[in-house]
Design goal:
Glucose Permease (Domain IIA); 7 helices; three-stranded antiparallel β-sheet; about 400 residues; about 15% strand; alpha+beta
Amino acid sequence: MKEKVLVIISIALVLVSLVALPTDTSAKTIQEFEAEVSKYTKELENKKASLAKNDAEVKEIKNKIASIESQIASAEAEIEQLQIEIEESQEEIQRKSEESKSIISYYQIADGENSYLEYAFGANDITDMIYRLSIVEQLTEYNDKIMKELEQLIKTNQEKQKQLEEKEKELEQLKQDLKAEQAKIEADSQTIRESMPSIEEQIKSAKESVSYYKKLGCGASEDIQKCEYRVSQSSQSASLPSVGFFSRPMDDGYIVRGMSGGHMGYDLSSSNKSIPVYPIAAGSVHAIYTDSCTSGRWCQNMGFSCNGNAKIVVIKHNYNGKYIYSSYVHLRSYGNISVGSVVSKDTIIGYMGTTGCSTGSHLHLEIANCHWKNGGCSYGAYTGRLINPGNLIKFPSRWSNR
């Protein structure tokens, strides 16, 4: 009876492990890491070329905008000058009108609408009338000529002013169109620049992986996870204890967010916002680092503001003859640990915090069967090999023990 129970338990454990830990259908090799280095290097070069092209286009647009602004300034100055000339012409018409009246007054012409007629018909004799009619004719011709010239000048200036105002509007619209194009190009450049550190980091990580696995003695086409496990288990000092179960990473807490909607792990928090964080199982410290999330498209799209690089610890575990990696993100500070040191499930590896892209103090827990930092896969592969923490650890709505 006892033997049957043991068999059933063994089968159940195997089934749970198969569900909880996805198998890797594509083995990673040194050759593939070297191919990734080439791929990411080429991608980085393409992005740098795109940036150079964008910078050149922005420079050209800025030169065009500067030229347009100069033309707008010239048009505005010319409009202002034309307005002055129009006002001066109108003043000249008024002045000439007053001058004509003064001349007539000089010849003792009565003021009024019919002053010319009054003057002409006020002659004492025929000779005086002819003389007066001659003066009236000359004054009339002179006034008509001057008035027509001034009125034409006003009309011409008004037409020029209208044309310049239309030109100014067209230039202003062109300027705004160019600024919109500039903003579009600069936004594209910003997007490229935001992704560059990630690419550079992946190139560096892939190069480190090549060097690391070559030093371990892995073959160029050998599955590096099998190689690493083989090498570590052949050395007593390097071997990791096998773990059969996992604990919650905090003594007290609750789930803030699960693994859904593109979220890559579990967000956990506690009433104690600086509670100690522990490994989910015994293992070794695989990596201690900060990510590059101080700004960028990812944070903006998620609606987060970034207050500094997220502090991260990665622990490597030996689980049923394979390695899995647990990551602890947004830590306020690190525990007394170093890369390579062996930790138990009761070792404090850090304290919960809100560093990086975070809306409040919490722990982001990720688990995968590889890691992009010397853990057997690229970042792209890592995101496809994540393990739901709920498949390995029991998380009630609220807990007060591990």
